[in-house]
Specification:
371 residues, alpha/beta, seven-stranded mixed beta sheet, 13 helices, 11 strands, 49% helix, 18% strand, binds glycine
Length: 371
């Protein structure tokens, strides 16, 4: 188990990650002062699987009221309507400013729950208990909260750091295979953006990782958590370095928006986005052919990505311009210079982006065939 401290503009918080972390939840909650109620926000699916173990931890700790508010955790439900539903649930339950929200679930629960915590009564305390790989290695750390609009991904939100994060890999045991693979794309991302050793490990051990081998999972999760904590501590508000976490996300978010958040899981869209960003890195002479091939092989090694051929290249390119990192209507790309080294804020000519989007499905297929 590791305890990593993340610094943010509103104070530091701990990320407790690893086997046995869930056992620390009660004690960490007990350290919060003057708590009226604890509201667990989760989805019916997640709560059905891990509600009993979380309830047990919470029941052992205090006398304040506890209540669970459950909502749909599909990406297509990560919207303002869910925020309203949850906030009204809190209001009807009489939640006051001294309450604590404990978000138990994947990225959608964390992002919606976090945004509710940031805005309900102008801010109540928040704790993250991530239950998916994507949330444990990425979305629960760093204070980003928010929801999607039909016009684009995560366009409404707030930076709102939690009191602490408890990430226990035991909670991943019941994660469906597709969700697990979706999280692995984010793990691949950490290798490309700054950790060549992690990337090589994935190249050599993908079969073991896909079997969810305990030692392999502990090793990769610990590395990703340390990387995320370090990046967001240096650049909480994404004014520079934090943008590297968006490798694969410019196109990924466009694909999610184009498919109305219904066809692909977030990590799958990032998988496609990393293939696109890798091709752009090669086409702009940043990355060698061999390294580009390695990245595409590892992405494809995670599993078969859902087809995206039905989305027009022009539409995808147009959507990349609505990305949060765009400036003056131009998308700003994160491109690889090497495995473990990326540049951010890169402007790429439209014609190149269009050809890469058109080539992506075929090139991804070829790399898989050779791999
Ligand atoms: N998931 C990207 C970030 O937290 O900045």
């Amino acid at each position: 188990m590791q305890r990593i401290v993340v610094r943010s503009s509103s104070g530091s918080y701990a990320v407790v990650s690893g086997s046995g972390a869930l056992g620390r939840l009660g004690e960490l909650l007990s350290r919060l002062r003057d708590v009226s109620d604890v509201f667990v926000l989760s989805s019916p699916r997640v709560w059905g699987k891990c509600g009993a173990s979380i309830e047990k931890v919470l029941a052992a700790r205090g006398r304040e009221r506890r209540r669970a508010i459950l909502f749909d955790d599909a990406e297509s439900a990560k919207n303002i309507r869910s925020v309203e539903t949850v906030a009204r649930g809190l209001a009807r339950a009489g939640a006051d400013r001294r309450c604590v929200i404990v978000a138990v679930g994947g990225g959608v629960v964390g992002d919606v729950g976090g945004f509710v915590a940031a805005t309900y009564l102008r801010g109540v305390r928040l704790v993250h208990v991530p239950t998916t790989l994507v949330a444990q290695v990425d979305s629960a750390i760093g204070g980003k909260t928010g929801v999607n609009l039909p016009e684009g991904k995560n366009l409404v939100g707030a930076f709102y750091p939690p009191e602490f994060v408890v990430a226990d890999p035991a909670l991943l045991g019941t994660l469906p295979d597709r969700q697990f693979r979706s999280g692995l794309y984010e793990v691949v991302k950490y290798g490309v953006i700054g950790d060549a050793a992690l990337f090589s490990y994935l190249e050599r051990n993908m079969a073991k990782v896909l079997r969810r081998d305990g030692a392999a999972m502990r090793w990769i999760i610990a590395r990703c958590v340390r990387a995320k904590a370090s990046i967001v501590t240096k650049d909480e508000r994404e004014s520079g370095l934090r943008q590297i976490l968006n490798f694969g996300h410019t196109l990924g978010h466009a694909i999610e928006t184009a498919t109305r958040y219904r066809k692909l899981l977030h990590g799958e869209a990032v998988g496609w986005g990393m293939i696109g960003a890798t091709l752009l890195s090669y086409a702009t002479d940043r990355l060698s052919f061999g390294e580009a091939q390695r990245i595409i092989r590892v992405v494809r090694g995670v599993g078969k990505l859902p087809e995206i051929g039905e989305i027009s290249a022009a539409r995808l390119m147009q959507l990349t311009r609505g990305d949060k990192k765009s400036r003056g209507g131009r998308a700003r790309w994160v491109l690889a210079r090497d495995i473990g080294d990326v540049a951010w804020g890169v402007d790429v000519p439209d014609a190149l982006v269009l050809s890469v989007i058109r080539a992506m499905p075929e090139i991804a297929g070829l790399a898989r065939g050779r791999g």
